[in-house]
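Exam revision sheet. Question 4 asks you to relate a sequence to its structure. Input first:
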Amino acid sequence: YLGIAIKVQEIDLPWRELLTPLMITGLAVMALAVGLAFLLAHSITRPIGQMTRAAEEIARGNYKQTIRSSGSDEVSRLARSFTYMAQEVARAQQMQRDFLANISHDLKTPLTSIQGFAQAISEGAAGDEMGCRHAAQIIKSEADGMARLIQDLLELAQLERGHLDIAEQPVSVAQLVRAKVNKARLRGQREGLRLTLSLPDGLPDIVADAPRLERCFANLLDNALKYSRPGGEIVVEGMHLTPTASRPTSLPVAFGQALDQREWVGISITNQADPIPIEALPHLFDRFYRGDRAREHARGYGLGLSIVREIVLAHGGRVEVSSDAER
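Answer key, structure tokens:
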């Protein structure tokens, strides 16, 4: 047996020397952990608090709320999503106000005309039978315009909500477009405009709702005729497209899927008109948009292209617009 004796003081001394550094290190680590926890909690609670206050402001009707966040964590993404939502709500509210203002203006003018001529007839101020007949024709014309406006609004609302049934049947795009162009050509001749139609051979049929597709192309041709320069030319061109093909830039372009789903059909309608300002292009398909000078001289309610967009989207297609002002 071998026995070794060590004094107790020789064992306790190293621990006593390490105790102070260990305590200092532990306190430092604890302080650092508390600081990091505070910063982390602040980084989470601050945007949440901002979102809470922003939500309260939105509830009061103040929709211009922005929450600044530059991180990539979940809370930062939530803050950016909340800001985007607030912007979309503000945009929807502004569109609603613009809609009410536009519809009030567009109904006020024909109503004033109807009231004026109806009063003239009732008071005998319209003159003889010819004058009364003329006043009655104006009343009928204004009433028909109001009826068309209301019908367009109802159809547009149904399309936007997706409550409108879209019939699915084979439709010959070439035949439909040719018929619409021939009908529009008569109007173009009266207005001094030339219409040119170019359709490739073998343009396939598509699955679509024929009456709504007719409405779509009628609106496009009407828009092209309405805003063309006197003596200008309107070119309607059909094309074969593959699903991955680049989309041409013409005014406007509508697409539909062919029956075999391996090819897309494109129709391009191009007119010769004043260039559309670049800032106006994103709004051409908005309801009641008539903001650019090229639209001021022509009468309309600003719903035609909105209906075109909804019809094309309801068929799973795309519609685009471009202008020489872009180049």
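Marking note for examiners. The mean pLDDT is 76.
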